[in-house]
Design goal:
The complex is a heterodimer of chains A (469) and B (259). Chain A is an alpha/beta fold. Chain A is built from eleven helices and 21 strands. In chain B, helix 3 (98-113) packs parallel to helix 5 and helix 5 packs parallel to helix 6 (184-197). The chains are: A alpha/beta (469), B alpha/beta (259). At the A-B interface, helix 9 and helix 10 of A face helix 2, strand 7 and helix 3 of B. The complex binds adenosine-5'-triphosphate and magnesium ion.
């Protein structure tokens, strides 16, 4: 039977989300970063003076801070060639219908509602994004939940933003946190009042939609006592000819007894540098869970962190990294135990193929006074061919003698016998391999909302197609 | 009606050691052929080679299904043409549930039948077929949500093999010691399940050490396999004789283990 030929080198390069619609930016600062650009961004947004001041301090720090050399290769990033601010539309749309057609078209072409309908047909679940969008908004407002883009968050809830912004990830944290603080735009602001449990995941889609435009979204989530939210962020980016930079910052604070789960599936096109600082603070008996899937990009450096600052706090990180040809996924997690009886669990799975490089870089630290801390790290790597590579760089620092810290790592390959078994049932080699890979990451996909699990498996299939034979 | 023809088949390991040394066998729909023989005589090697296992080389002869040689085809294409192997030792696929695996396998075959265009089985139809087959083979429901063969008992694995066969509806099925590991009741259930499928749509090769399974799956032919060849052939009576007398009478000097 004739099978469509797929050129391995093109996998992930011409993938189906690689399109873009013509944006007519309402305003752009042009290429390169200067003090004036920072001032203009702030002025365009009509921000309070303290935010402008913060941006400028961060900008100064960015200039003096060297590009880090310990992770992936960042030497080719040309900061002068990028746009730092492109304002895509005049105002925020209130509803799905009001979205400008080209943005709506991009989302439609991502196949989000359609694909789900198709895939979920027969399962009985109906995925109706418009209805969900409206109902959710009303319901949230009624319960006092705030779910806004970050610019609106700053305008409408300045006190909350001012209290937490940059407290969890200060701009001095790293060069890219400084850059983000200087030029941030967009991102989400979420506040959940005490005791309110938002059952339905809150979702947002981000995209890069102008050539050479770095995306610098800034997200702040504040979960009050005993409240709960699950925030889901998915993104698939159009493809461009020159390198693109995504440097986001996510800050989360979970007050006593609260819980926050933050799920990200990222599939940036393979020219994007994805350099994200994510950090959450878990106070007394609070829980933070990061679920993080990285499939695309040229280089991802991302280590979701949890600072367990209150007694009994619990943190979990579930991460998947998939590195194909020319890709480097330098991902991991950090758990910092700063209070007694805190617990953390890190599960990291990586897959590399076609010369890709996927690694785990992690930190578990138990500070003085964090008696009875428990932490477990499990890293599993699946390497699909001889050219590909997996690295593990775990760092463990323990300052309490009764801490219970464990680290397990495995590296495996797809077994010929397993493949033969599946193929003997009629699955092609690439179907059989993607089934094995999907099974490998299943402990993580089963934690995703259904439509994301479906999308994740579809992305894996896409990555695996033509990777064999 | 399907026709499998094995013609003077020789199978060697990758290092060149010949394990199967010239087998001739013709299997038609509706027929059951039992293959019995001592350990290490090469029965599984024959079964794997028929299915296209990459660790085995065909060093001579041919295998034809309905007149077309299977040798140039991969295991997936052989399955798509209607060949099935119930493994002596099925492999585990962690993270993939039995039900999603079954659905994918059924869809792979449907796709091949639709000349490469996707033709997924509608979920209600899948559920119905699955429920019927599970009831027939008395497969516990909870196995469906577990990962394929991951931590399964020996008997559970064998039942799942036959469940796969029942859903994939092959034309020619090769059962490699499906009876080992099954308890007495399970053996009857599974063997009856196989018998029900044998007919105008399926022929079977049943590899076994024990006569018992043949009480339920009545063999039309019994082949004694030793030292890489068939050394005797007969009907169901031969299996009974083997059970009481053993293989000694059929073993030339130095077999098994002569390499
Ligand atoms: N992949 C392999 N590598 C090395 N030796 C092999 C391989 N496969 C089979 N053999 C050898 O070939 C011989 C035949 O093995 P095979 O599994 O076919 O026997 P069998 O007749 O099925 O035995 P049993 O009744 O125990 O299942 C054995 O000596 C076995 O060790
Ligand atoms: Mg055997």
């Amino acid at each position: 039977m004739a099978k469509p030929e797929t050129d391995v080198s093109q996998i992930g390069r011409d993938y189906k989300y690689g399109f873009h619609t013509t944006d007519k930016p309402a305003f752009s600062t042009g290429r390169g970063l200067t003090r004036e650009v920072v001032e203009t961004i702030s002025a365009q947004k009509g921000e309070p003076g303290w935010m402008l001041e913060r941006r400028l301090q961060a900008y100064e720090h960015f200039l003096t801070r060297p590009v880090p050399t310990w992770g992936g290769d960042l030497s080719e990033i040309d900061f002068d060639a990028m746009f730092y601010y492109v304002k895509p539309i005049e105002n925020q749309a209130e509803s799905w219908e009001e979205l400008p057609p080209d943005i709506k078209q991009t989302w439609d072409r991502l196949g989000i509602p359609e694909a789900e309908k198709k895939y979920l047909a027969g399962v009985g679940a109906q995925y109706e994004s418009e209805v969900v969008y409206h109902k959710l908004k009303e319901e949230l407002t009624r319960r006092g939940v705030v779910f806004l883009d970050m610019d609106s968050g700053l305008r409408e809830h300045e006190e909350i933003v001012r209290e937490h912004f940059g407290n969890i990830v200060p701009f001095r944290d790293n060069k890219f946190a400084a850059l983000n603080t200087a030029v941030w735009s967009g991102g989400s602001f979420i506040y959940v009042p005490p005791g309110v449990k938002v059952e339905m995941p809150l979702q947002a889609y981000f995209r890069i939609n102008a050539e050479n435009m770095g995306q610098f979204e800034r997200t702040l989530i504040v979960i009050d006592e005993n409240a709960f939210v699950h925030y889901v962020e998915g993104c698939t980016a159009p493809i461009y000819s020159s390198d693109s930079l995504h440097a986001a910052v996510v800050e989360i604070i979970v007050k006593p007894g609260g819980r926050c789960r933050y799920t990200t599936i990222q599939n940036w096109s393979t020219n994007v540098y994805n350099l994200v600082t994510k950090r959450a603070v878990a106070q007394e008996n609070a829980t933070v869970e990061w679920v993080d899937g990285n499939l695309g990009s040229k280089l991802t450096m991302k280590y979701p962190a949890i600072w367990l600052t209150g007694e009994g706090a619990h943190g979990e990180v579930l991460s998947i990294a998939f590195a194909g040809p020319g890709q480097h996924q330098d991902t991991g997690a950090k758990a910092v135990h700063m209070a007694p009886n805190t617990t953390s669990l890190i599960t990291a799975k990586s897959i590399s193929r076609g010369g890709g490089r996927a690694g785990y870089r992690g930190l578990v630290s138990v500070a003085n006074g964090a008696r009875g801390a428990k932490s477990k790290v499990v890293c599993d790597a699946l390497i699909l061919d001889e050219e590909s590579r997996s690295d593990t760089y775990p760092t463990i620092r323990v300052h309490e003698s009764d801490a219970d810290v464990g680290h397990e790592a495995t590296v495996s390959k797809i077994g010929e016998e397993q493949l033969f078994y599946l193929m003997s049932r009629g699955l092609s080699e690439s179907e059989a391999s993607s089934m094995i890979v999907s099974g490998f990451v299943e402990p993580i996909t089963k934690e995703l909302p259904l439509e994301y699990a479906v999308e994740m498996n579809r992305l894996i299939q896409l990555q695996m197609e033509g990777s064999v034979g | 009606m399907a026709l499998l023809e094995i013609k003077d088949l020789h199978v060697a390991l990758n290092d060149g050691t010949e394990i199967v040394k010239g087998i001739d066998l013709t299997v038609r729909s509706g027929e059951v052929h039992a293959i019995m023989g001592p350990n290490a005589s090469g029965k599984s090697t024959l079964a794997y080679a028929l299915m296209g296992h990459p660790s085995y080389k065909i060093s001579g002869g041919d295998v034809l299904l309905d007149g077309e040689s299977l040798l140039p085809l991969g295991a997936d294409e052989r399955a798509q043409r209607g060949l099935f192997l119930a493994f002596q030792y099925p492999y585990a696929v962690p993270g993939v549930t039995v039900s999603s695996f079954l659905r994918s396998a059924m869809n792979a075959l449907r796709k091949a039948r639709a000349d490469g265009t996707d033709d997924p089985i509608p979920i209600p139809e899948f559920r119905k077929d699955l429920a019927a087959a599970m009831e027939h083979l008395k497969v516990p429901r909870e196995l469906l949500g577990r990962y394929l063969n991951d931590g399964f008992s020996g008997g559970e694995k064998k039942r799942i093999e036959i469940l796969q066969m029942a859903l994939l509806r092959p034309q020619i099925a090769v059962l490699d010691e499906t009876d080992s590991g099954l308890d007495i009741d399970a053996l009857k259930t599974v063997a009856d399940g196989v018998s029900d499928l044998v007919g105008p749509e399926m022929g079977a090769i049943v590899i076994t050490h024990y006569q018992r399974i043949l009480n339920y799956i009545h063999p039309d032919f019994v082949h004694v396999f030793a030292g890489g060849r068939f050394v005797a052939e007969g009907d169901a009576e031969l299996a009974k004789k083997l059970e009481s007398e053993g293989y000694d009478a059929y073993l030339p000097e130095g077999i098994p283990g002569d390499g």
